[in-house]
């Protein structure tokens, strides 16, 4: 039996036969497709840092060249604020060493620190104003009371020591541990508001080391000064008790009262003034 014969299908007109076996041809790729593509990502990442460095260097160089023309001497110092206890002349003398600098080199922070070391200055603000001015705004201390014998207290309970303490003997005198300045000032303000409607003022308020409070009123329309022994705690409640009893029974006799002890839980004790012995008039001697 004869083997079957394989016949190739007839080729289409105009088409070349495809080679068989290992000699088969592969279509060639274009040269641009076979070469490696250039990677510009690194250059793009490097471009912006280089540009920023160049701009910064240019800005710095321009500023250095313009500085001699822009940095002028300080020719005007404007001191603002309601000054009662210090003069502008004293302020000008205090900051004179700093004003010798130029507009951009003047040390504003050092100037502010120097001003706040003056006893009567509570707060200072210093700023530049183009082209040659320094503006200084000052806030003075507000003396409310004396602290012991050597200092004054402002309304925040902060002690300061001016030279002219003798001029402020009319202020109330507060005593206490150094750590308790603000506490004593706050207690003074509370008690003073409670006593004022009755015609009393506080001449002396003392907080002792063991925590006891002692108050002395000033002489005034309500009568001579009296001493109030308040104890350690519940000062507001004790003061309310004193006010209630004062209006009912003590008001008419206040001139005879020397001290009132409020350290009791539900009452008080009154210490009376010693009666003043009447003065005996000396008989007149007739002379011949």
Automatic annotation (TrEMBL):
Region (Disordered): 1-25
InterPro entries, sorted: Cell_div_FtsQ/DivIB_C, FtsQ, FtsQ_C_sf, POTRA, POTRA_FtsQ_type
Keywords: Cell cycle, Cell division, Cell inner membrane, Cell membrane, Membrane, Transmembrane, Transmembrane helix
Membrane topology: Single-pass type II membrane protein
Gene3D superfamilies: Cell division protein FtsQ/DivIB, membrane protein fhac
Compartments, as annotated in UniProt: Cell inner membrane; Membrane
GO cellular component, one term: plasma membrane
Transmembrane segments: 40-60
Subunit field text: Part of a complex composed of FtsB, FtsL and FtsQ.
Family: Belongs to the FtsQ/DivIB family. FtsQ subfamily.
Protein name: Cell division protein FtsQ
Organism of derivation: Pseudomonas lundensis
Lineage, highest ranks first: Bacteria, Pseudomonadati, Pseudomonadota, Gammaproteobacteria, Pseudomonadales
Gene that encodes the chain: ftsQ
